[in-house]
Amino acid sequence: MKVAMVVNGTERSGDVEPRVLLADFLRTNLGLTGTHIGCDTTSCGACTVLLDGEPVKSCTLLAVQVEGRQIKTVEGLAQGANLAPIQVGFHEEHGLQCGFCTPGMMLVGAALLERNADPTDEQIRWAISGNICRCTGYMNIVKAIRHAAQLQAAARMAPAAEAAAAVTGGEE
Ligand code: FES
Ligand code: FES
User: Fold this and answer.
1) How many angstroms is it from 137 CA to the middle of ligand 2?
2) Residue 157 Cα, ligand 1 centroid: separation in angstroms?
3) Which among 27, 41, 62, 73 has most CB atoms closer than 10 A?
4) Would you state the pLDDT for residue 111?
């Protein structure tokens, strides 16, 4: 049957059997292989994508269940050549080793920062508690999300500072 959804801002569609999982549709039909499959049983979080902004495990949804909805995958985080703050955070804080868990970790991190711009480490740990990393021990992932929060805060302050400088002519 035909299924259509908006993926990373672009309408995408395909012909699938009703039993096809969203993870398989993204990877096989759309070629978005940044969405990883680690367990197929809702345990590991490697397949996490954002559904209307909320993290979901795409191995637990059928493609036909998200008809007409908004999906964001890891491929949708960067704006052209500009990495998203969450991606910069993982780069700067060495938040990955093999990188298999990283797409899911970055998407849950980005969703957390959307609703809580200044999370505590405990809140970050809670947000990533459905995602398993077999390499990093989680410390650097927490640091990476905190780093992204700081980058986003700095970006929010920058326009205000520029506006104030324009009003005062840049004088203290
Ligand atoms: S592949 Fe979906 S949770 Fe592991
Ligand atoms: S970096 Fe390897 S599983 Fe997380």
Assistant:
1) 9
2) 37
3) 73
4) 98
